Amino acid sequence: MAKRGVKLDYAYCLEEVIGAQGLSAQDISGLAPQVARAHQRLGEQHQGGELGFMDLPGQSSELLDAILEQAARLSSIADDLVVLGIGGSALGATAVDMALKGALRYAQPAGPEGMRLFVADNSDPRFFGAMLDRVDLERTAFAVISKSGSTAETMSQFLVVKELLERRLGKKEALRRLVFITDPEKGNLRLIAKDEPVAIFGVPPNVGGRYSVLSPVGLLPLACAGHDVQALLEGAAAMAEACKSPELTKNPAYLLAALNVGFYRRGRNILVMMPYATDLFGLAQWFAQLWAESLGKAQALDGSTVNVGQTPVAAMGATDQHSQLQLYMEGPQDKLIMFLTLGNYGRDLSIPDLYPRIDALSYLGGRSLAELVQAEARATTAALASQGRPSYSLRLPGISPEVLGEVIYLLELATVMAGGLLKINPLDQPGVELSKKLSYGLMGRKGFEQEAKQMEALDAGDNYLV
Amino acid sequence: MAKRGVKLDYAYCLEEVIGAQGLSAQDISGLAPQVARAHQRLGEQHQGGELGFMDLPGQSSELLDAILEQAARLSSIADDLVVLGIGGSALGATAVDMALKGALRYAQPAGPEGMRLFVADNSDPRFFGAMLDRVDLERTAFAVISKSGSTAETMSQFLVVKELLERRLGKKEALRRLVFITDPEKGNLRLIAKDEPVAIFGVPPNVGGRYSVLSPVGLLPLACAGHDVQALLEGAAAMAEACKSPELTKNPAYLLAALNVGFYRRGRNILVMMPYATDLFGLAQWFAQLWAESLGKAQALDGSTVNVGQTPVAAMGATDQHSQLQLYMEGPQDKLIMFLTLGNYGRDLSIPDLYPRIDALSYLGGRSLAELVQAEARATTAALASQGRPSYSLRLPGISPEVLGEVIYLLELATVMAGGLLKINPLDQPGVELSKKLSYGLMGRKGFEQEAKQMEALDAGDNYLV
Questions:
Q1: pLDDT tens-place string over residues A106-139
Q2: CB neighbours of B3 closer than 8 A, spacing ≥ 6?
Q3: What is the predicted pLDDT for the residue at B366?
Q4: Considering CB atoms only, which of A134, A311, A379 is closest to B327?
Q5: Residues β-bridged to residue A274
Q6: Do B117 and B90 lie in a common domain?
Q7: What is the DSSP string of B172-240?
Q8: Which residue, among B98, B127, B255, would best test binding to A if mutated, counting the most A CBs under 10 Å from its CB?
Q9: pLDDT tens digit string along A69-85?
Q10: B324, A358: Cβ pair inside 8 Å?
């Protein structure tokens, strides 16, 4: 069992450190029994077969072998993998790939370290068309990821790609370049795979899209991209182990959830995630989906109308010190900030002392870029604290598959705990149906004639155009 | 004079369309006199030499010629341009370059259409180191952008790069690959350029960083990248012309400001910008700085403590329908959404009817990806409206330099108008100083010994680590 490396530092959440805006010892101990109750319910749900994401760190080695084998097959025929998926089918793989290969990963061709991973997470033809331009169809594989097999964006892209591949390479070669990741039994992709031999992986039914990065949804693309998915799972397992305690201040996931909910109840309806590393921006976007879609709910479990939800914001340090920090320092007391800091950046650059006579430059000489960005992170969190602006930091020892596995599991568990504290269901997303149906109506899908009419009635036309 | 193409559709802000959460006719007419007064003050400020961004669309053709000449020189010796700049020195060029060359612009080498533009907007050595790995130093130019010439991140990167270039190519060739964009008279970059011959451009002193994209700060990098900067300015000029009226409902910038402030006063402390195009995500990040740093203020003009500011969130359609939409539909009534829709995506892909017997796919056959994404935008805005969730849309005819110039000017003017309505100064950023000074203290800069001590006192150590 790997040792947990990620730590939660919550000093700047506390009244005794930042003053009246912080939580008191009583506030924290007041949250403890709520957490303990929610912990029990989560345990019951898990035993009842829900919360499948908790089982992912311990997935069977057969499945992992099958994933690695498939990745090896795809790597042998293709340099690039295009993921056709959106939302939970896209964000996790992007987060891990960006973290490990860097924000500029597209600026070099695929190398021996694994396939280049493109993620077609929008139906926008300008973007998707450019993506198809960038790859060599003959040397590209496509992972179609949709649990239902009816996601409009993903399935449209699949239809476009399938025709392109067949025209260029013939049916047999086209099918070799496809892999489906979908429901283990039903849905349109299963239906298609009955007639046409396509490699296929199942997603456990009790693992929702936004909790699926450690299932084949994330693991297959990441294995193709050459990442150590075993290490990713080991990191998740280490964090799962560290998060077994029902005791609030001994369980980083529960504490993180309690801080967020505690501050939300005090009017902080915005939760900023600000990693001090450009390569972690994808992780912040992955978390934004997890937090928003899980907790933004109209109804509580008892059926009452609550309209809760804290709005996640993906920011980036040090960059956003020159963009959002002014607002965070002086604006309304409506935010809580989660910093992600790095103990080790994995590389560094020394700053030479080229202009010893210029004061504003000479202090930098002899230091390094890592020292500078780490000093900035410390200074920014402290500056906010000095103004009574609460924050906490996830201290990451560095960026590695293990660390990412830890962070992913930590945040997933924290999210369902927050759902427990808010007494809502963190696993569904009923609010997105109406927009889908209206869109079906507009696209003329059979059975959605009513929605087409509703759409007409809602359309405001050009009456208020300036 | 180019004709304005961008229109503001505000139907879904109105009580008569979306119900009680909307603004009534009285609400709007109540805002009109405030806008008229602020309009007058803005006019006085402009006449008094402030608000320099308003003069940028009409900049001298000599300056533009000098920029184009410099871009031609750099293009002749380099394939890639790296911008060393952060915040306002980075976001504008990124926004326009990403919009025109696409989110995947790094996935292909520089071509005849212009240099590849890298923007080093973080001091993170992992990111910046990777950037330096990706370029061929001999064929790379560097634009150092800092008004003061003392921005720690930018100047550190400059020192690193200058040494690298000198070692590899010698001093003379190193200097040829540099260009400074800074204060027209003072600052460290001017000082350096006195001794060492480096091409240099000035930024008008009355143009702050976040309003500077149409000055040499944005224009030089964009000209290097092969974009039509003249057309960008013409678009801005067309929008400036359309925004001359003091009448609220005839002036898109003023109306946009009034809607944002009107809803902010009703408790909507979050402003989402959601373009329905991946390539416009950089524009949303540029706007996030403009809005946050301009309006997030502790003090009003009269010295009273107000702590105002609406938090901008950069989202993306259709992608975030599978991420944030659940929260937008069902969460608290604390948001206003600005959609950016496209009349024309510039390219399209037809969806073939490969599986006529599968209902969930066959309706897509014969349609196109542009039709799908446009239907989704309409459906999502309508679905939100049906739940009394206000939004408005900027309707862009397409993505072009002219359109981007229009949008940039529109949003800059709307931001200063919003500052007028909120009675704060939208041009300063006093709140970021403390973090900078604490960071200087940590880095041992002379004269910041006091801050080093303050930093020690603020540091909470490892006392609250889980």
A1: 988 777 789 999 999 999 999 999 999 999 999 9
A2: B238
A3: 96
A4: A311
A5: A339
A6: yes
A7: HHHHHTEEEEE-SS-SHHHHHHHHS--EEEE--TTS-GGG-TTSHHHHHHHHHTT--HHHHHHHHHHHH
A8: B127
A9: 999 999 999 999 999 99
A10: no
Is the pLDDT confidence value at B349 over 70?
A: yes
Q: What is the ipTM of this complex?
A: 0.98
**B270 at the A interface (CB within 8 A)?**
yes
- Of B206, B227, B248, the residue at which a domain comes to its end is B227
Tell me the mean pLDDT in the region B174-201.
97
Above pLDDT 70, what percent of chain A?
100
Helix, strand, or coil (residue B418): helix
Residues A193 and A212 in one domain: yes
Q: Are residues A174 and A68 in the same domain?
A: yes
pLDDT per position as a tens digit, A405-449: 999 999 999 999 999 999 999 999 999 999 999 999 999 999 999
In this prediction, the residues of chain A whose per-residue pLDDT falls under 50 are none
Q: In CATH, what number is assigned to the domain containing residue B66?
A: 3.40.50.10490
CB contact under 8 A, B107 and A107: yes
Asked whether residue A92 is assigned to any structural domain, the reply reads: yes
Chain B residues whose beta carbon lies within 8 Å of the beta carbon of residue A11? 460-461, 463-464
Residue whose C-alpha is closest to residue B121's, from A26, A463, A104? A104
Q: The domain containing residue B384 runs over which residues?
A: 7-46+232-422
Yes or no, beta carbons of B359 and A447 under 8 Å apart? yes
Query: Which A positions 184-203 lie with beta carbon below 8 A of chain B?
Result: 188, 191-192
B441 interface with A at CB cutoff 8 Å: yes
Domain co-membership, A213 together with A241: no
Instruction: Count up the domains in chain B and report the number.
Output: 2
pLDDT in tens, B21-34: 999 999 999 999 99
Give a yes or no: residue A243 inside a domain: yes
| CA-based nearest residue in chain B for residue A307 | B331
pLDDT at A157: 98
Could you say which of B234, B293, B402, B412 is catalytic?
A: B293
Closest chain A residue to B12, measured at CA? A460
In the predicted structure, residue B375 carries a pLDDT above the cut 70 = yes
Single-letter amino acid, residue A77: I
Residues 33-62 of B with CB under 8 A from A: none
**Residue finishing a domain among B209, B227, B245:** B227
Residues B195 and B136 in one domain: yes
Indicate if A302 and A317 belong to the same structural domain: yes
Q: Is B466 close to A293, i.e. CB distance below 8 A? A: no
Q: Nearest Cβ partner of A124 from B14, B255, B277? A: B277
Q: Is B46 a catalytic residue?
A: no
- A462 domain residue, yes or no: no
Give residue A1's pLDDT: 61
Contact status of B99 with chain A (Cβ, < 8 Å)? no
Q: CA distances (Å), B447 to each of A333, A373, B437, B441, B442, in order? A: 32, 20, 10, 8, 12
| A-contacting residues in B 126-145 (Cβ below 8 Å) | 126-132, 134
Long-range contacts of the stretch A303-310 (C-beta < 8 A, 24+): A306/A422, A306/A423, A306/A424, A307/B330, A307/B331, A307/B332, A307/B333, A308/A264, A308/A422, A308/A424, A308/B331, A308/B332, A309/B327, A309/B330, A309/B331, A309/B332, A310/A260, A310/A264, A310/A268, A310/A269, A310/A270, A310/A271
Could you give the dihedral angle defined by the CA atoms of residues B324, B328, B333 and B334, in that order, rounded to the nearest 10 degrees?
40
* pLDDT over 90 (residue B107): no
Contacts of B350 in chain A (CB under 8 A): 160
CB-CB under 8 Å, B399 with A122: no
Q: Are residues B64 and B205 in the same domain?
A: yes
Return the active site residues of A: 293, 322, 436
The answer to the question of residue B73 being in a domain is yes
- The answer on B71 and B30 residing in a single domain is no
Instruction: Identify from B106, B135, B279, B322 which residue to disrupt to test chain A contact, counting A C-beta atoms within 10 A and taking the largest count.
Output: B322
